[in-house]
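Loading example: each entry is read as two labelled lines plus one structure line.
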Amino acid sequence: MTTTAGAAGSVAAGLTGRMFIGAERVDGTGTEVHSVDPRTGRPLAPPSHHGTTTEVRRACALAEEAFDAYRNADPQRRAGFLERVADNLTALTDALVDRAGKETGLPPVRLAGEVVRTTNQFRLFADVLREGSWHGARIDPAEPGQAPPGQAPPGRTPPARPDLRQRRIPLGPVAVFGASNFPLAFSVAGGDTASALAAGCPVVVKAHDAHLGTSELAAGAIRAAVAEHALPDGVFSLLIGDGPTLGTELVVDPRIQAVGFTGSRAAGLALVRAAAARPRPIPVYAEMSSVNPVVLMPGALAAGGESLGRDFVASLTLGAGQFCTSPGLILGVDGLGLDVFVTTAARAVTSTTGAVMLTAGIARSYQAAVAATAARRGVTIVARGGAAAGAAGGQAVLMAVGGDDFLADPALQDEMFGPAALVVRCRDLAHLGTVVRSLEGQLTASVHAVGADLDDVRRLLPALELRAGRIIFDGWPTGVDVGHAVVHGGPFPATSDSRTTSVGSSAIERFLRPVAYQNAPGALLPGALRDDNPYRIPRRIGGKLLPG
Amino acid sequence: MTTTAGAAGSVAAGLTGRMFIGAERVDGTGTEVHSVDPRTGRPLAPPSHHGTTTEVRRACALAEEAFDAYRNADPQRRAGFLERVADNLTALTDALVDRAGKETGLPPVRLAGEVVRTTNQFRLFADVLREGSWHGARIDPAEPGQAPPGQAPPGRTPPARPDLRQRRIPLGPVAVFGASNFPLAFSVAGGDTASALAAGCPVVVKAHDAHLGTSELAAGAIRAAVAEHALPDGVFSLLIGDGPTLGTELVVDPRIQAVGFTGSRAAGLALVRAAAARPRPIPVYAEMSSVNPVVLMPGALAAGGESLGRDFVASLTLGAGQFCTSPGLILGVDGLGLDVFVTTAARAVTSTTGAVMLTAGIARSYQAAVAATAARRGVTIVARGGAAAGAAGGQAVLMAVGGDDFLADPALQDEMFGPAALVVRCRDLAHLGTVVRSLEGQLTASVHAVGADLDDVRRLLPALELRAGRIIFDGWPTGVDVGHAVVHGGPFPATSDSRTTSVGSSAIERFLRPVAYQNAPGALLPGALRDDNPYRIPRRIGGKLLPG
C-alpha cells in the first residue's frame, strides 16, 4: 500500500476512486493507481484500481441499452440535461479547481477559467440542440409521374419522384479518452463528451490516470444530471484503466460506434489502427500532434520585432507549453527584424523561472524531445529558461535552425510537447514559402503581417489553408474560442480526420449520419421531418433552405 | 492480336482506346484489354493497354498542379463548367447509348435514361454551387475584452473573442473508380466525379475495364468542357489499368486526398486498407455491399400478397438484378399471406426469360454465389427463371429459409450480385424483429405495411434506422432519386463511411473540410466570408442561420 496525501480533501469532495458503470460505483480489480501531485511527487488519495474487460463490456452493454431511448428523447429534454451538467459542474467549481490543481500543478485562475469553458461547452450544445440545424432536415416533396412511387427507374423523364425526407441520427455509443493537458475542457466532461451527448450518443469515458480525482468529480456531475433527468443508466460511464489494454478493448468493443481522443500521435494512431482493424470499422476523431507554425512577415518584424518576441514567449510558456496549439515553430526571413525578435524572445525565455509540467512522465518526454531536436544537424540552442524543481519540472527552450537544414530533416517537424520552439531562419520569402510547403498538417498556422506584407501573405495563404485548420492573423495560437466558427482540427497528423473540428458547435456533426425516409406515413415521421415542423427548425425543402 | 468487332462504330465515335493524362492522349504499355459484348462474347474495338506507374504519377502530378487554380476559381465558373459537361454528355447521347449497350448488354431505354440521370447530376451540382450552402460559411464577430485579440486564454470571463470565420475548402485531388453496373451514372462521369469536381477537387478516374469505350466517350465530354472553360489541364484525367495494381497505386499516391468507389466488398475493402496504410491516411468512400432487406408486414401481406409478389420480382430483375439496391432479402411472418406472396413471386420468377449480365465474370460470380447460398443449411430453391444463352447469361432465382437457420448462419447475409433473393420465413413478429436486429448495414430497408401494421412498424423502425441509409415505405428499393434528401449510403458494409451519401446534393460534403480564419484582414478573406457576402449565400452569423 502506497502512502497517500490529501485524504481529508478527497473525503471532503466525496472521492472514492471508483469507476461509474452507469449509476453503479465499481472498484477495479487491476493495477492500483494514484494521481500524483506533480509539484511534490507525492501520490494523492484515494487510490484507484484499473478496470478490466468485465467493466468495459458492462459499460458498453449499458450504453447500447440506453441508446434508443436516449437518441429518441425530445431534443429539448436532451438540452435540459446538458444544461444540468453545466449547472452541476459550476456548483463543483471549488472542488474541481482544488483537486485539478493538486493533480496537474495548473494554477487556480487557469483552472477556474477552464471550469467556465467546460460549462460553456455544455450550454453551447444545448443551444445547438434547440436551434436544430444539427438534424440536417431535408424534404424533397413527391412529384407525380407515370410510375408508382418508389419504382421510378433511374433517369426516366419526367420522373415520378417519391416523397424523400432526410435527417441525421446519432452513430451510437461513443468512447472518449480524457486528455492530460486540459483536465476539464478536454477530459471527462470535455468537448468530445458534450458533443457526443448532444448528438444523442451514450458516452463511455476512459479517465486519464493523471487526474483521477478530477475525473471522478466531473463524472459525478454528469451522473447526477442523468439521474435528475431520469435518463437511462447507460447514457454515461467512467472507466479507469490502462490505455494500451483497456483503452484498446473499449475501441474494439462492437457496441462502440465512434471514438474521441486528444493526446499523443503514438497513442492516437494506435487507436486509429485498432478501430480500422475491427470487423466493422468505426470513425476515430484523434487530435494528435501540431507544432503550430507562426510566420513572421518582414514588414511585421520591421515594425515590431521586439513586441512580437515578448508576446511569442508569453504564448509559448502558457500552461508550461502544454497546449495543443502552442507555437512551436517560428518562420522568418533573416535580417535585422528577425534578429531583434530572436534577441527579445531569448531574453524573455531566459527570464522564465520554469514551470511544473503535468506529470513527471510528460516532463521526461519533453526533455527527451528537446534533446533530440537539439542534436539534429544545424540546430542551435538560443536560450534556456530557469528550471523548476522536482521530477515534473520543465524549462523553456528556444532553438534555431537554417531553412535548408530544416528542409533536409523531417524530424525537425516533430512536436516537443512543452515550452520549446524552433526558429527557422529563411533566406528570403521564396525560401520561406518552400519551408511552409514542406510542413505536415497543423491545428493552426499564424501570420504576423502589416499592410506592406499583404500581397506576399496572399500568395502564401493557399499553402497555409491546405496545411492548417485555423489561420490566425496578428495573434498567437494559444486561445481556442468555443463558438460556431472555430475549427480545432486540421490535416493529418494534427488530427486523424481533417473533415471535422473537436471544438465548437460543428463538433456535434462528428457523431451523426444521414438517414432518408421514402414515402413514410406521417404517423411514423420523426419530429424533425413532420410537415408541421414541430421543433421549428431550419430545413431544406425542395433544395431551398428555410430558417426555422 | 485478338480480333475485334464493331470497328466501324468505334471509328464513328472517334474511339482510340487511349487514356487522358490531362489533355494528352496516352497509350498504355501494359496488358492489352478490350471491352467485350456480353451478348456475343466478342471483344469490341478499339483495344486499350493498361497504364503503369508512369501514368498514375503524371495524372496525379497534373491534378496537384491544377488544384489551387481550380479550387479558387469563382464558384459560378465551376458551375458553368459542370453544366458544360452535362451539355457535352447530352450531345453524345446516341453514341453513349450505342456503345454502352454493346459493352453492357443493357437496353437502350435504360441507358438513355441513365444519360439523363448523369447529366442531371452535373446540373444539380451546378445548382448546389450557386446556392452556396456548401461553403459552410460561419462568422462569429469579434467581441471586446481585456486581452488582445487572439490571446484570450480558454475560459476567461468575460472573454475577448476574436473575429472568427469558417468556410469549407476542397480536400485535394480525388481518385474515382468507375463501377460496372451503371456505366454512366456511377462511372467516369458519375456522381463521385460530379460531386468531387463541384467541391473543387481535380479528379483522376480509373476506368472500368468492362466499358472502356463508354468511359472514353464520357471522359472526352469532360475534357472538352475543361478546355472550353480554360481550366487547368490536370482538372481531369482518365486512367486505364488493373484494379489491384494501378488502382492501388492511385490510392496510395501522396497527392490523392480522397477516394470514391462503387463495387464489390472485397475490392472496396482493399482500397480502404491501402488508404489507411498510407503515411498520411485519406478518406475512402466505398459503396460496397447490400442485400436491401424488405419487410412484409402481416397486414400488407393479407391485403395484397399477390401484387407484392409481382412487384417484388419486377424490382428484383430490373437490370438483371445488378442494382446496388436490388431487393435480395425478404422478411415475412409465416402464414397464408406469405404463402400467396411466395407463390406469386415464384410464378413470376419462373416466367422470366433470363437476362444477359454485365460481364461473363459477373455471371460466373453470381452463379457461384447462388450455389453457395443454396448449399447452406435450411435453404430451399423456390423457383428458377429461364436462363439466357452465352457465358454472361443470368437466371433469376428465388430461395427460402427459416428464420432460425438464417440467424444461425451469417453467410446467408452475403450479397448475391444478380437477380437472386432469399425469403426468410419468421414465426412471428418478435422473431422477425430478431432477424432484423441480426442484419449488417444496408443501403436500404423497405417496409410494406397497412394501417393495422403501423404500431408494429413503429417498434421496428429504430432497428431499421440503425442498419440502413434509406428506409422505403410501400415501395421497392431499386430507384434512387437524385435530389437533396436522398441518402445512398449506410452502415458498414453497405459503405465504408456511413456519415455520407454518394448520391444527391449532400455528396459534395465528402470532399470538403473546414478552415477557420481568425482576425483576417478583409482584403485576404475568401468571397464566402467577406462582410458584403458577394455570393449572396446562406451563412451562420453569431450562431444564427441567415438565408442568402
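Chain B has two domains: 18-131+168-288+502-507, 293-473.
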